[in-house]
Amino acid sequence: METIKADILAFGAHADDIEIGMGGTAAKYTAAGKTVVFCDLTKAELSSNGTVASRAEEAKRAASLLGVQERVTLDLPDRGLFLTEEAIRLAAEIIRRYRPKVIFAPYERDRHPDHGACSRIVQEAFFSAGIRKYKTNGEEEAHKASRLYFYMINGFHKPDFCVDTTECMDKKKQSLRAYQSQFEMGEKSVATPLTNGYIEAVEARDRMMGKEVGRTFAEGFLTAMPLLIEQDLIGES
Length: 237
Prior knowledge:
By secondary structure, the protein is α/β, with parallel strands linked by helices.
């Protein structure tokens, strides 16, 4: 089967990271006919609740709810994510395989060390994937995505730009609720920050982002490079 080419390739350290930070944006672009691919760097094997198998099923359902065309899970170690050559090569190989127009990764400033590590790994892979002589395990040719953006998981940071996700907020919440093992207390669950109103907190953050840009809901993003505006400087009247 031929590998699809992605308009958007989003990386996360664990399944549910991408949904938390940019589930609405993913849903918005898949609804517009764009091809979106998710890549989780780990199997989240050290999560306090759930199992690797249950998390994989939840991730599959969440991606389907958002209209994501493919979801890939790498085998890097949970809580063992570091800026290593192996991690960079694996991420670069995914970039070359799906040849995205734009790439998303977690914002580096986050309370969970794996999220920051994922950000640094993807930043290096974004650059290395475009170098013709850089070797990965695959046979794909070098590929340089046009942009690298960063989404927020934990915390509230001043964004460089926002995406209006008002029409997609319900889809985002559905995708988060697909992770029952993470966001709901079961008989065998232990309390974590995720089981204590986390989805409600994410919704509140997206509502606050929306207010910043005159919309009901929005997701905020950061960029390492300035954005070039050519035709829409004035914006809608």
